[in-house]
Amino acid sequence: MSDWIVTDRETGLSALDFLRQRLPTAPAGYLRQLLRSGRIDCNGQPLAVTAPVRRSDRVRVPNSQRLQNLIALAATDAAILCETREALLVDKPAGLAVHRGVGHEKDHLAGRVARLLHDRGLTFRCAPIHRLDAGTSGPVLFGKGHRAIAAFGKVFMQQPVTKIYLALVAGTMPSTGQLEVPVPVRGRARPAFTTFRRLGGGGGRTLLELRLETGRRHQIRYQLAAAGRPVVGDDRYGGPAQGGLTRPFLHCRLLEVPDPFSGKILSGRSALPASLASVLERLDIEPPGL
């Protein structure tokens, strides 16, 4: 048997939705059949299809070969945060590039998403609408099919998109403020604006929550370095090293995008990765909640 512990982010999901998040390539009908057969239990009791799961519940699934293959596949792919007919929001881990490139020829987020859809038997094109740096973790939006890709591309160019980040920086920062240093784009300085608020500090470090008002490449990293407060672990922009940290301490915690098809807001909320949370713990800085 394989055991899963329900996380804060999964609390309140129905049993079927919980399994679909844990096993995104599994057909919904197959998961529904498993639940109805009583082969999946929660805290020792059979789990019903519509029953909600709660934080710290222990969900146990049988050791069938098919399930173990699905579990192994899910372990290599990014977690789905939100999905509609036209869109897919996935949680990108640090160290994984969004697109194929030098050093990321075999494994990248776009490839993982393409493989996931292929395993579902879907053949349409699915492409990322924006990007995160390889060293940055958090939600990335993909459009499903050419029509959706074009529509969401227009949203990012013409409508407000909410992007909120967490960054640990060197030194101290005021409680609130705005970064306004222009960011170089193709050799020209472009206007860029980032607002921030201080969440905590300790050990010569400050934890910030930042909201992008514009979307220039490397905007947060460049502006913080220009302010003399580079992101911890960011070698490119002179960020100081931090024991045990092998990536920049920069994480996108929330992405909210207007959906041009439903008129609703697509929301992807990403929990702080354990590697970053452990840094805050060692510095005695209270980690932010979801």
Structure description:
- The protein has about 290 residues and is α+β, with helices and mostly antiparallel strands.
- It has three domains: about 1-75, Roll (Structural Genomics Hypothetical 15.5 Kd Protein In mrcA-pckA Intergenic Region, Chain A), CATH 3.10.290.10; about 80-160, 2-Layer Sandwich (Pseudouridine synthase), CATH 3.30.2350; about 160-280, 2-Layer Sandwich (Pseudouridine synthase).
- It contains seven helices and 16 strands.
- It has a six-stranded antiparallel β-sheet. Strands 1-4-2-3 form a four-stranded antiparallel β-sheet, with no helix packed on it.
- The longest helix is centred in the middle third of the chain and has 14 residues, at about 145-160.
- The radius of gyration is 20 Å and the shape is globular.
- The two termini are about 30 Å apart.
- About 35% of the residues are buried.
- The model has no long low-confidence stretch (mean pLDDT about 90).
Structure described in brief:
With 290 residues, this protein is α+β, with helices and mostly antiparallel strands.
